[in-house]
Design brief:
The structure is a single chain. By secondary structure, the chain is mainly alpha-helical. It has a 3-stranded antiparallel sheet. It is globular. The chain is built from 8 helices and 3 strands, in the order H-H-H-H-H-H-H-E-E-E-H. The model has no long low-confidence stretch (mean pLDDT about 90). Helices cover about 50% and strands about 5% of the residues.
Length: about 180
């Protein structure tokens, strides 16, 4: 039986308080289920940055264009980006391109965790096909093709956007004054 290699690396310092606090903030902001998802995003970023450093050391125009074209398709950089722009990428740039985050930002779900639930339960489609992976990186050409799956109960009756207490208080204040 073939053993698969992990697609991430665990941190070298297991109990570094500053790193743990930073990971906790990112996990809450992006609705990650396990730290493994954050470590995968960090590995993806690490590989792209490593390739950019290698290309800065040994310039190869074809490889450079391929790397920038791939990052452009993923929505991480602009069309006219340079290798320095690739080196400036952060893990938050990668996390912003996850399907879970894009679904939440498009307003298909009320919360980031609800977006994950919709994806896992098969209510979200990309190109009219179910996409059950909340960690999938969304390409630029897929962004406008994300919606509810046509057989989903939400396709005809989307969930009502919940108002935050801040918005309700603001409306009440405006009505009284």
């Amino acid at each position: 039986m073939r053993r698969l290699k992990p697609k991430y690396e665990k941190p070298k310092k297991r109990w570094d308080k500053a790193r743990i606090e930073e990971e906790k903030k990112l996990m809450e902001k992006y609705g990650l289920r396990r730290k493994r998802e954050l470590w995968k995003a960090q590995s993806i970023l690490r590989n792209f940055r490593r390739r950019a450093r290698e290309l800065l050391a040994n310039p190869d125009e074809k490889a450079k264009n391929e790397l920038i074209a791939k990052l452009y398709r993923l929505g991480l950089v602009e069309k006219d980006a340079t290798l320095e722009d690739v080196l400036k990428l952060t893990v938050e740039n990668v996390l912003e391109r996850r399907l879970q985050t894009v679904v939440f930002k498009k307003g298909l779900a009320n919360t980031i965790k609800q977006a994950r639930q919709f994806i896992v339960h098969g209510h979200i489609s990309v190109n009219d096909r179910r996409m059950p992976f909340p960690g999938a990186l969304v390409r630029r050409e897929w962004e406008d093709k994300i919606g509810y799956y046509f057989k989903s109960s939400f396709a005809k009756n989307p969930p009502v956007k919940l108002q935050s207490t801040h918005d309700i208080n603001k409306e009440l204040h405006e009505q009284t004054h």
